[in-house]
């Protein structure tokens, strides 16, 4: 089989691959196991850096 023939066969499958990849990422992000980690990560901008200044600058 020629390489152009393979590419013609694989070309329509890129959309299927992207949909599957998107579904896996969404599944991973919404797993209950990750909830605590993402909540901690969301609070990072509000945490004091501990430099000893009251306003954190």
Rg of Cα set = 22 Å
Q: Give the uncertain stretches in residue-range form.
A: none
Task: Categorize the overall geometry.
Answer: elongated
Which percent band covers the strand fraction? Answer: under 5%
Number of helices: 3
- Please, what is the oligomeric state? single chain
Tally of separate domains? 1
Class of secondary structure makeup: mainly alpha
Distance between the termini: 64 Å
What is the element string, with H for helices and E for strands? HHH
Tell me the major beta sheet.
none
Helix content: 55-70%
What's the rounded overall pLDDT mean? 84
Strand tally is: 0
Note down, in words, how this protein is organized.
With 57 residues, the chain is mainly alpha-helical. The chain has one domain (3-44). Helices cover 58% and strands 0% of the residues. The protein is built from three helices and no strands. The protein has helices at 3-10, 13-29, 35-42. The radius of gyration is 22 Å and the shape is elongated.
Throw out a few tags for this protein.
57 residues; mainly alpha
Outline the secondary-structure elements:
Elements: H1 3-10, H2 13-29, H3 35-42
